[in-house]
Queue: 3 jobs
Job 1
Amino acid sequence: MLRAGLLHLIAQLQQYAGEQIVYRRGVASYTITAIIGRSGTATTDANGALAVSHTDADFIIATTDLPFVPTAGDRIQRSDGTWYQVLHTSGTPGVRPSDPLGVAWRVSTKRVPT
């Protein structure tokens, strides 16, 4: 029941807040709808100073929209033509579940030249 609710929520987010993107791995590409966001990571250095870093964009992608798990090095093109590359940030994997049941992935990226 909870899984059905999460699937419905992702579908609603895609419909009302989603953006069509092209997900590319090698020569294969997939046009899908993703929800765009950002993540922040807070760390402290040896002196106790706080440093906060942000991803350029996070893409929430339904696990059923791709036939594979996103991996560092994959590329995403937004509808405005900008390109992003999947990455691993310090202390945070580049791809992780966005919910407790794994209905969608949160894919962290960095903007790259075309």
Job 2
Amino acid sequence: MATSSLRRGDITARVATRLGGSRAQGEAALNAVLGVVQDALSSGDRVVLTGFGAFWVTGVKERRVRSIRGGQLTTVPGHKLVRFRAGQDLSNTVKG
């Protein structure tokens, strides 16, 4: 099964088409939505788009791992990850 990637420019063009505006307006709309999502996640809020899915930030603790090459113990610092869980409507659309 061959897959293709939908890139930012492609999304911008599709948003512009759906809004009936220019590509610049589509880009402005996309930037506005992504900016709101980024701001919410960076402040620790959960972002829920009903039917599409939910984004949230989770913390990963510092841990020690063994290097594959040398067998030496290395410390991986704690960090944060963005998680996503697909909503029911998105899941049903993908399943077909």
Job 3
Amino acid sequence: MSPFPSKFLFFSFFLIFFSRSFSQTKPTLQIFDSSKVCDGYLLWQDKTKCQLMDRKGNVLYNFPGNLCSFFYNKNEIVTHVAGNLTTYNKNLDVIWKVSTYIDHELVVTPQNNILLYAVDYDSINHMLVRFDKIRCFDSTGRELYQWSTLAEHRYLLNFVMNDKNIFRYNIKGSHDPDSVLYKIAPSLTGITRNFADREFFHMNSIQVIPANESEKKDSVFRRGNLLLSFCNYNDSLVSFIAIVDPNSYKILWYYVQNDGKQMHTPGMLPNGNILMYVNSDCRNAVDSSFIDEINPVTKTVVWNYVERLPDVAVRCSHGSCQRLPNGNTLIANINGYIYEVTPQKKIVWQWHTVDAKHLYRAFLYPKEKLQWIVDEQ
């Protein structure tokens, strides 16, 4: 009997398998309702890269580094590359750079100042503890100020210890803040990105509050204050978001999600509400990540969207959300999905890639803000 049929079948099977594997690894635009989608250029970021694309999924630009932002009315790119805060012109010539580790956040304010999260380390009870800190630079690379949870850890501990909504640890023995910190700070054993034994909070987001309707009701929500996210990884302290005075760094307002879950990219909206991505609980396999819009005055949920995409229901880290000018909401999660939903919760745009190394966040920019980059390509 001729071996041809069996060889032919094997070769056909190989071609089908290879073509399917290739199609599964190639980024795909899965849904595109052009009449409902907000126009603009989309920037997405993961652990290794930042990429700009149009709404058809065409890649327009690959930026250096793993965090990226842009100045206002100034054609310069701000990135984190190889342990340096770096600015480039449109030809990717380095303008200036400052040595600093950046973790999670890099934003440019309307005043063209740069806010980022760096880290401090200190030994407490013979254990090396990691603390996050905000560093602020102007558009020339000159550092304006720092604020560290290390320097403020006693204030922060006293604040959370006096609120049972946040602090859920039954203290035995000394109430000294350093002793309490050692007991409640979660272990970082096995988390390779850290060099410390423990971590005091884990901060992942900064927003300089813009003009909004809630500031007319309470000065706590006034423009210029900082909206920060404080995350925690154990049952002693729950995660919360807080509005902080940029001068005194005292907490003026805070919000705890009902189950104390982590929150990413909380942002004050023009209508005075706050939108946030709420991570699922990794310990609960049936839990889902979701997006909440809350009224910060009453601390009630006014809009909610639960993630129901294939294989992405449980996402206990990363993720982002953004309210778009047309009223839709852009959502991104760690599994490589970026999608846009209407206020009625219909998906009108969806893009997916399995190539992303822990897709961190995605934001849509008006075309006019980044046209200078696209025109160069």
